[in-house]
Amino acid sequence: MNITDIQNIFTEAEEKISQASDSNELDEIKHFYLGRKGKMAQVIKQIPELPEEKRPLAGKESNIIKGKIQSLLSDRTQQLKTGQEKTQKIDTSLPAVKRTLGGRHPITIVIDDICKIFEHIGFTLVEGPEIETDYYNFKALNIPEGHPARDNFATFYLPKDNMLLRSQTSPVQIRIMKDVEPPLRILSPGKVFRPDNLDASHSFMFHQIEGLVVDKKTNFTHLKASLSYFVKNFFGRDVTMRFRPHYFPFTEPSAEVDIACIICGGEGCSVCSRTGWLEILGAGMVHPNVLKEVGIEESIFQGYAFGLGIERIAMLKYGITDIRMFFNNDMRFLKQFS
Q1: Do the Cβ atoms of 66 and 35 come closer than 8 Å?
Q2: pLDDT tens across 135-178, in order?
Q3: Is residue 87 pLDDT above 70, yes or no?
Q4: How many helices (H) and strands (E) does the chain have?
Q5: Among 46, 83, 138, 272, which residue's Cβ finds the most Cβ atoms within 10 Å?
Q6: Phi, psi values for residue 2, rounded to 5°
């Protein structure tokens, strides 16, 4: 054995590697030349039989040839892999990968449904800021100094003077009445914030929808008709509605609106506290002081307003017993509405 024999092995291997058409052939070539009993192993075994002065050169050349063969094998493997990727065809007859589509949040669904109902009877959607001033959130709404709603335990106040996170969507009606001449028919959905203790029926952030109508001949009958239209279209034609006298600083007269319990049909159950009724919103005729504050002549124009808690409406619609489920991001819960 001499150096020429070793180089001939490389030339032979190089040709076979270049002609290999798949990874199986390359594995066979690797085993034939670089395996434990392959050609290069046999060459190395013969080195001790060479004259002492030729052994170092033969050993060095053998290692070089082994490395070159290994490099050729790696390069050819990559070439075959790249070629397969380029020539691979898409089989359009195979079933497609099923992709999971996102869905709307139940709160978003309820807001959209409510807005569509009121838009059908002429209401226009408007928005307002979530960071408000004391004036818009309280004073302009006829909420006097010392009212419990102004206390720290009922409102999130910000370090900046007279700034707060709005505790209701009612400030939007003040902003609109100041900027737009009546007649008005608006609906304003959005987030509100109150420092309530988090439990099954309370959250420090929730959603409301504020409705407002101002016109020359608007009266309480129109308010009742609008809310009746909403209740019948949202909860069903057979649902019974009632008004109960109540007090709100920004409306006079004021009322809370109940519907017959949709769980027990008015018979009385744990959901309605055995009364057969469920409160769904507050409403009333816009207080003359509010109209005066925004520069609307109360002797010419009258108005009505109402406010709905979206989470409460959603809980009634879907039979949900814990408000925290809306905000826990539990996919098992949210997927039910996809």
Answers
A1: no
A2: 999 999 999 988 998 888 889 999 887 899 999 999 999 999 99
A3: no
A4: 11, 10
A5: 138
A6: -140, 180
Task: HSE, CB side, 13 Å, CA atoms: give it for residue 137.
Answer: 24
Distance CA 264, CA 277 (A): 9
* Range of 235-244, 270-279, 289-298 with top mean pLDDT: 289-298
**Count of CA atoms in the C-beta half-sphere (13 A) of 233:** 16
CA distance 46 to 6: 11
Encode pLDDT of 200-228 as tens digits. Answer: 888 999 999 999 999 999 999 999 999 99
Please name each of the domains of the chain with its CATH number: 3-87 (no CATH), 106-337 (3.30.930.10)
What size, in residues, is the chain?
338
Single pTM value for the model: 0.68
Among residues 282, 276, 309, the alpha carbon closest in space to that of 227 is found at 282
Say how far apart CA 82 and CA 71 lie, in whole Å.
17
Instruction: Please name the residue that has the structure tokens 């919103």.
Output: 281
Q: Can you say how many angstroms the Cα of residue 334 is from the centroid of all Cα atoms in its chain?
A: 10
Tokens linked to 164: 């707060």
pLDDT tens, residue by residue, 22-80: 888 888 888 888 887 888 888 788 878 778 777 778 778 888 888 888 888 888 888 87
Helix (H) or strand (E) holding 26: helix 23-34
Q: Look-up: residue for tokens 């006079």?
A: 252
Helix or strand or coil: residue 90? coil
Find where tokens 């290069």 sit. Answer: 40
Residue 279, strand partner residues: 258
Give the residues across from 131 on adjacent strands. 165
